[in-house]
């Protein structure tokens, strides 16, 4: 679906005061009833991650970490069954999963007298039952399941659905008899950085020639388009266009319609703001190459 820049900005401004809790989605749906819940969750996830990136440094100072850790210890003594870390994260406007990481790292340093490795911390966050302190294990678990933007649970969901939609994408291309090479096949051929799909015979979409498809398990706002263009897409274009532009394509209407059916939620890199419906569903990012057909 498409949102105008003004509509997106209105939603983003309202989200500035929200925390990543279960109640925030209810509030968003009440405020913007015309938007689907998955669209609102997508926008919230992106905007919240931007917010965290802007403020994360202040939470990682030694003074801040010590303050959080002493606060955690004090409140756990007074009420050991309360969701202390979750409440603390919401109070200081920080990700619950990232707060759990900070406290876990500080706790292990206190217990072992040295900083734990990143791999150890990650394994404990993925499996809190391995944390020896049972109360802390429960606190970490609460933070993980209540964080819709960060943490091992979110990473697992994104990875699983990303894999699912890569399979669906390949199946849909095969159903329409479109010749392509996927990322694994391209790596076997020696490519080190590739799009998800290179079309061996380019497809015409709305008068443009599409050579390849890159899918992303993230929200497609204007800023992310620009970032992906600079970090990935231009390198794909430079590498693939000379090879694929030699192929001739007639642009027949039947092939155009089949491909348009395939990419019913496509994104065009133009001046309008384009969005997708789902936070974790893969979005097909189509890079438009201005090539002349033979």
Outline the secondary-structure elements.
Layout: H1 5-15, H2 22-31, H3 37-59, H4 62-78, H5 84-91, H6 96-112, H7 118-126, H8 134-145, H9 152-175, E1 180-182, H10 183-188, E2 197-205, E3 208-216, H11 222-244, H12 253-262, E4 266-267, E5 283-286
Parallel strand pairs: 4-5
Antiparallel strand pairs: 1-2, 2-3, 3-5
Verbal overview:
There is one protein chain. The chain has helices at residues 5-15, 22-31, 37-59, 62-78, 84-91, 96-112, 118-126, 134-145, 152-175, 183-188, 222-244, 253-262, and strands at residues 180-182, 197-205, 208-216, 266-267, 283-286. Strands 1-2-3-5-4 form a five-stranded mixed beta sheet, with helices on both faces. The radius of gyration is 23 Å and the shape is globular. The two termini are 33 Å apart. α1 packs across α3 and α6 (96-112) runs antiparallel to α8 (134-145). By secondary structure, it is α+β, with helices and mostly antiparallel strands. β2 (197-205) and β3 form a beta hairpin. Residues 241-294 have low confidence and may be disordered.
